[in-house]
Amino acid sequence: MPIALITGASRGIGAAVAESLAADHTLLLGGRDIEALDRLARSFPDARPWPVDLTDPTAITAATAGLTSVDVLVHSAGVVKVGPLTEARADLWRSTFETNVVAVAELTRLLLPALRSAGGHVVLINSGQGREAGAGWGPYAASKFALRAYADVLRAEERGSGIRVTSVYPGRVDTDMQRSVRADEGGEYEAAKYLRPASVAAAVRAAVTATPDAHLQEIILRPTS
Fold first, then answer.
1. In the annotation, is 194 catalytic?
2. Cα separation, 27 vs 13, whole angstroms
3. Residue 4 to residues 154, 166, 213, Cα–Cα distance (Å)
4. Could you read off the pLDDT of 33-61 as tens digits, one per residue?
5. Which pLDDT tens digit goes with each residue over 119-166?
6. CA-CA distance, 182 to 199, in Å (whole number)?
7. Active-site pick, 140, 150, 169, 194
8. What residues are paired with 102 via a beta bridge?
């Protein structure tokens, strides 16, 4: 079966994407929580944990060394901290970009030969903040705008290689990360008004399973509530 590597797979959108692809893909479940990855892997027919610290270049190099063919790479790992720019110190900007942009770029770079070999697909879970930034979202929104630019450049440079590149821009999603965001904002958590992780995963699957003549480059999702 085709191989799908999913980062941030231990929970939230990443776990939902894994579930959506499990029936017809061999899954590599990326993340730091090995116990959670083990539990998730056991629930699928063909999956194994792929534990790695994505901010450690040496660890990423070692973890990708044996991967010669990758059909799908889904970048779902990310971090967010909401607050005014006056409280966004340099270390927050650096750590946000390190996870949300630099790790994505380095992992993709290392896997490009494997992706080219398979005629693979790169899916980047972006955000509504990657298209229109709001107050309080400074470092996170800037990182997501950078991720959007990265996807555009990757798509342009890999045109003709067989690699497809899709950016997915969900609004608020009912996840642990969203709970952290609402705590930062000091607002009520209203799960019924947010997208379900499975809804975002369905969009990812639609992109990944599109017919060979079709390239879904951008997908924008917003809650109906």
1. no
2. 15
3. 19, 15, 20
4. 999 999 999 999 999 999 999 999 999 99
5. 999 999 999 999 999 999 999 999 999 999 999 999 999 999 999 999
6. 20
7. 140
8. none
Q: Are 99 and 75 in contact (CB under 8 A)?
A: no
> 110 burial class (0-12, 13-18, 19+ CB within 10 angstroms)?
middle
Over its C-alpha atoms, the chain yields an Rg (Å, rounded) of: 17
CA distances from 35 to 48, 60, 167 (A): 12, 20, 29
The answer to whether the CB of 55 falls within 8 A of the CB of 99 is yes
Partner residues linked to 30 by β-bridges: 50
Q: What is the pTM of this model?
A: 0.96
